[in-house]
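Preliminary data (for renewal application), S-adenosylmethionine complex.
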Amino acid sequence: MAIQKKNAKARLDKYYYLAKEKGYRARAAFKLIQLNKKYSFLQNSRCLLDLCAAPGSWMQVAAETMPMKSLIVGVDLSPIKPIPRTISFQDDITSDKCRATIRGHLKSWKADTVVHDGAPNVGTAWVQDAFSQNELVLASLKLATEFLAPDGTFVTKVFRSKDSAKLEWIFKQLFAKVEQTKPPSSRNVSAETFYVCRGFKAPKHMDPRFLDPRHAFAEVETAAVNNEAKVFNPEKKKRKREGYEEGDYTQFHEVAASEFIQTGDPIKMLGDLNRLHFNQENNGDIALAALDKLPETTEEIRLCCQDLKVLGRKEFKLLLRWRLKARERFGFREKKTDHVGGSAEKKAAGASAATKGVAGEEVAMVEPMDEELKLLEDIQTMKDSQSKVERKKRKKDNERRQKEVVRMQMNMVTPSDIGIEAGGPEGSDATFRLKDVDKDGGVRKQIVRGRMIASQALETKKPEDEDEEGEAEDEDEDGDQLERELDGMYEDYQERLEQRSTKVAAKRARMKARGEEEEEFEGFDEEDAGAETDASSDADLMEDEEDGYESEGERGEIMTNLQPREQKGELSGRAASFFQQDIFKDIPGLDDAEESEVELERDSGVDVASGSPSQELKAVDISDPDQDDEMDIDQPYENESDIEEVKTKPDEESWEERTTRPKSAAETEGRPNIDIITAEAMTLAHALATGKTTKTQLADDNFNKYSHRDTDGLPEWFLDDEGKHSRAQRPVTAAAAAAIKEKLRALNARPIKKVREAKARKTFRAARRLEKLKKKSSDLAEGSELSEKEKAASISGLMAKAKKTGVKKRKSVKVVKAVGHNKGAGRPRGVKGKYKMVDARLKKDVRGEKRAAKRNKR
Ligand SMILES: C[S@@+](CC[C@H](N)C(=O)[O-])C[C@H]1O[C@@H](n2cnc3c(N)ncnc32)[C@H](O)[C@@H]1O
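Predicted structure:
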């Protein structure tokens, strides 16, 4: 079957995909399924004949639906791949050979149902398509009359054309019930329709002309066409559902403009033609030459004649007026309009589209249109166009609102979107009419909760209601509501970000595994931030930062309180107790204190190890505790990595490594041991160390335009954004950057925690085995019954066994070639355990690669 390549993608609709999914060979399957759903003819059929069956989807449906052991025979010009429980062959259904073959397959049987979905080379000229389609239908009907059982069903596809009525008439002569239907899966753009003819009358004798296309489709007079309607409503073009005019297979029609002047039916001409030309041939058309020279034949007229199909009402009138003037000039006598009230007066050319023919000609009359009528019509047109514009606008508004609501429901609206969109329905400056909202946590939570109600209200509101309410509502109310929504949505946005973070998810899973109660992430409420001294929450924040998620919401609050290391989660509870065993004492690389430091460094940019348990530390201002307040002041807009307050709790020291770790010089002196790991911090440290800056200077520097910002009432998303981009830029020296780079390189060179853990586990197992071995061998050695030789043999046996247990045998994976019965889904026959399916191509490729590798070796 020829498929138009053009628009091929657009043809891939849901039925296409459904067919693919269900394993039908064509989407056409659904047509039969839907037809059968409506008329249930398959269930009761024991024998079916499918005419034009390739690729076979109807046969598949029939095989599925008809009772077991039914006879299904399909024929097509194209080959049909075998379908279980069916018979198919290749032939032309119009041929006698095909009839004979069907007879051979059916033997004495009669078909309960004959289906026909034939489509001859669709895509060529429409009229030809329709005709051959109708011929096919007649051919299939012929076969049906021969092979159908009395009371049988005939289902056929018919292309809507002027002949379909004739076909319907024929069907009605042969069947008790004839219904025309178009199943939903048949595309609307397609002219195909289906006839389900039930109750075959099985006449004993039939006039052969009955099914002869030449007789069946004999011409019938068609009704007169309303040309005026065609011309005066040019925009309402009808599709050529009935195909082209007989003998007229071109779509472009043009005549000389002079013909238009001479014609008695100018309206028809304007409706039918594409162009009026002024091309004069050599032997010349005098009328055309004269017309070409007329002053009335203006440039505008010529332009209008160029393409009649794009003209509107106004242009058609212009052409008709021009025609009348030309006729007047050429001395065509206008026929006295006896039939219009006997008046002979000429109608004003411009006032109406009335046209009159040459004396004695048959004239197509168009009702005269007087000034008043014209005016009324113009007013109506204007009104129509205005209301159309309004309707369009209203529709657009509604759609936008709907979209907004849906997006809000789906949490797709980001804060910036909201601002922009709010500018529409809430007023052009809605973003700038935001009012301060009490940022107190309690109130805030209510607000957050309120936003859902607000958005629900928004959702249920009809656009019209919205408009009315919008007018009635106080502007302040609008602002409040909008801000509430903004805040609420922002909360949501933050939460979603949080949830999306795989790191956080992993952390939660870890916590769950440890049996710790998962803390619900509440967003970055100021209240929370202020009260947040809880160590685990701080850990959350640090992990967030590591993810690239900056928690500016906490600015102005203490960012990096260190929680006890056990809680921080470097090791799971089980792992921690596991590694605390004595056996790990001397294993290098298992220093969790170090590890925590590394993580901490990564998080905060400052590596801190407390010298004394309760000491409060500052990254930069190391020694002067009085600087605390000054440093805190600047935190809202400072890089946290530069200045961080780190609190440690006494119980932190319970970590064994901490106590055993050799203390640094700073620690022994009671000063905090601070390792600087960001280039900015290093630059500052250098500056301090080299005396380029002083503590006081540093503190002074922290009073800048970024400190003491009035953040009250500002939306959180705005603060977040500000925090990211509007902050002091600290200088970084090349030496500091190089030092940090070197440091990080050294850090990165260390194996990751998992590797260290795995190695340690391995060592542990080996040590345990050794321990057992020692015990056994000492038992053996002490046993007095055995001779020395026997003892030695047993010990070496034990040693060999211990060695073996260390090496795990990998289970072999069977490789199965995907050919023959192994090609389908599921486990290949006779294969147990793990297997890997390979196809011939893959196998060949692998072999090829091996060969190439071998060649290269040589
Ligand atoms: C729309 S397809 C049929 C699809 C089929 N019902 C199915 O479900 O797979 C139309 C088929 O009519 C076949 N056809 C057209 N003219 C034919 C003819 N004279 N004899 C047999 N088959 C014909 C074409 O080869 C084409 O495969």
